[in-house]
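Our consortium's second objective concerns turning raw sequence data into structural hypotheses that experimental partners can test. To show how far this objective has progressed, the report includes one record in full. It was chosen at random from the queue rather than selected for favorable results. The single chain below, 550 residues long, was entered without modification.
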Amino acid sequence: MVTRRSTHASHARPSGSSKRRANRRNAASAKGALYAGGEGANGRGGHVGNVAGLGGPADAGSARRGTPSVGNVAGLGSASGVGGPHRRASGAGRFRSATSPTPRAASARPSARTSSRGPAHGSPPSGGVRVPTPSGGEVLLTRRHFLYGALGIGALAAAGAGGTVIAQQMGSASDDDVAVLEVPKSAVTAVIASDAFAEVDFAERMQLASTCELPYGSLVWANDDEIAACLLPGETGKPLTQVALLSLSSGSYATVLERAVGSDEGFEVYDVRATSSGLVWTEADILDGVWRIYTARSDGSSLGTPTLVDEGNADWETPAIAAVGNRAFWQVLPKADGAKRTEDSLLKRATMGATDVEVAWTSHGRMASAPYGLEDSLVITPRADTGSVHYQLTHLDAASGEALDTLVLPSSMKPLEAGYGATGFTFAFDGAYQYGDGIADLGTYLPAATVTDGGYSAAPWVRFDRSPSAAPAWCGSFFMVKSTSAVCGVDLDAREWFAFDVESGADTYGEYLASTGIRDTVVTFSNIDDKPVNANPRKCCLVRVWTPTA
């Protein structure tokens, strides 16, 4: 049975709008008002890159090597998957009706900088935006995960606790009878460090199909052949953001949501995904940790009536979202240090613009990474049905909810990102492990040849040996990955790789990969603030749509 609307039977309702407004006034008087792109009366939009963390400090390290960074706690395969008691995990519940809300942090934009011709390991720190909290503290919005503030005020405590949990997990041996991925070092080839792959000029392999200039500070997500979802900065900082749809063929865009549905209550739009069928987006009042999930039908240039499909309070992390065909998906996770920390984590879904909310998957433990949208399926990373901590990469059919493919990682190995492509599962680690043999190092992994019948341990593997900061994608025969500053492509058959150039004046993350899934095009973007000596200044978000040359 499908519920028409989440009833919140077991969750505290968000606080009233009057209480939230009072909290906001108190916070503003103590530390200054919440702002976007600049503090003070003259602060304007065009700087959502700052609120989004595009230009904030890079992650200093991984939770696997010490105290986790703010970015790691904030989301996208972060330390959100750790912390709190880890109970015995489940496989799945097929679609069932959802009667209560629950969530996790939304995906964001990050990365460190390197030469466009060859990504490097490190990244220099830089500033971020500090948002005052009602308790008198501050929340730092960094480049890596701009929705850190939307996690609620308790996220700082989770940051301090994450490293201890990791150590406890890694210190306990697994006695579970479960088949996990086992890859010898001899079966893994590093793209950059080895001589097995030759670097080629990107212009010999890829060509521009279209370009578009969005307001500076915009963010872009593409999981569709026709359109991309864009989060644009507000011109005055109120609203903080607006939602637009970008045509990948023409390079034109239309604003379809000028402000949050709950803007009068202090809500702002913080995350969005779209297909040609509709949109799913997150609204949050970050000062109180209150969030809502909306969906709507769309024709690519306008929006239907928004439908509220879920909402929750500070006991639950702000959901990560995905759009697949005419369906919206979102993950609901209890706050790692919150009162609901022992509750199940859920993947929910609904038809765009409808109230047919269902639970697609149940994990008796925290999921590791954000859902990854493909054309008609998605990838999630729930806890496997084991007593110790194992994450199971799970490829789900979006319509039926059936598992199409699964892969269990070794004990306590936690992917930052997980996806699916032409050869099977792909996953990324943002830190190295002292165990795991061939898959113990930092980087993005994928089978070098198509895997059948679950034979991942017997397959040869490739590792893109640079720090990951975005989910990978496929464009034709090219495996696309975000490196430190450049977006790179790898041709597994030709044993070649290339790096797109990075525009002059680009922000510290360089060029960012907006695409997920398997597509005929790949979408990248960069926020540029260029002030050349003998030419006109340029300040915009440049979106580029690429296709293979042959």
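The partners drew two points from this record. The first helix runs from residue 17 to 31. Helices lie at 17-31, 48-51, 70-74, 155-171. Both points have been shared with the crystallography group to help prioritize constructs.
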